[in-house]
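hey so i finally got around to running both of the ones u sent me last week. sorry it took forever, my laptop kept dying halfway thru and i had to restart like 3 times lol. anyway pasting them below in the order u listed, first the sequence line then the structure token line for each. didnt double check formatting much so if smth looks off just lmk and ill redo it

first one:
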Amino acid sequence: MLKKFIFLPFLVLGGIALVPQMATSKDRRGEQDEARAQMMAGQVKSIRSIEDRVLPRMGDSEYIGPEFDPGAQVYRLKFIRDGRVIFVDVDGRTGAILRQTR
């Protein structure tokens, strides 16, 4: 009986730690759905065509992945180089690089 009470706080804390991840995962799925819908409607380029354009320009940076802002129709590609995060914002309609953090 005592063992159940010892592990209970860990189970509760573990469940609480998963809640933000589930919300983030759900938000990410909605973001992907919106990007796909806009791409299918011809409003934005596919993430693959955006990546094909940007990745070769990033040299030895490690590619982490994309995000999509459906309101602005902007892709944000994330990279890591020398321990620093680099964001590259790309216009989803034209494929033009809007800005890059260093």
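and the second one:
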Amino acid sequence: MKFRRKPRENVEINLASLIDVVFILLLFFVVTTTFTRETQLKVDLPEAASGTPPEDTALKQMEVLIGADGSYSLNGQALLKSDLESLMAALGKESAGDNSLPLVISADAQTPHQAVITAMDAAGKLGFAHLRITTVEAEAAKP
């Protein structure tokens, strides 16, 4: 006795929905990922007993960050060399020759004094008159 076999159906997996789900997951991870700025210096500002809060200005403001190792960063862009000439060139390029812009120097508390003086010297040679050095307010001594 010979039984008839049913013809086999070709089994196919529909990949379109799988591809859609993978792309949605990819978009989710791209959107929710946080990116860190590697060029930004972490600066631990020195303390001061008194000071004035910065004024809000409509002018473009330039900020020189000086790391604990004496490396410079201008408006978030790290400078390749930490010398007077490269800092002056970067300040001149960023300000486009306008030395009336306010310049903020934010130096780490452990920064060598020479690095701060170099930044001030570069600003003075380019004619910047509005110079500010940032600090954090010291906490009052507890009795």
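quick thing i noticed on the 2nd:
The chain has a mean pLDDT of 78.
anyway thats it, ttyl
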